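Quick log. Single chain, no ligands specified.
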Amino acid sequence: MRMRDIAVELESRAAVAREVATASPVPDIGAAAAAHAYEDGAALVLANASDRPSGRNAAKATCGCRNIRVFPSVLEQGPIVCGVCGEDFE
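-> predicted structure:
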């Protein structure tokens, strides 16, 4: 699931919680708190999505059958083995 999809889901849940909080004459404090939490979560997800490194920071790694893009720090941690051909990505 992409970050934006997660944010949309959180915003949708916030809208439902807001409806529950205001549906009765007596405010539902728990639903109101949940709505705020979902809204805060959506904002955090969107903020982190924009802070993620772009593909330009990723390095090309190849095996015998394909190319992938990974961050250099991931390659430094150890070998990544292809599940198709069994070779290490380099």
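The longest helix spans residues 29-51.
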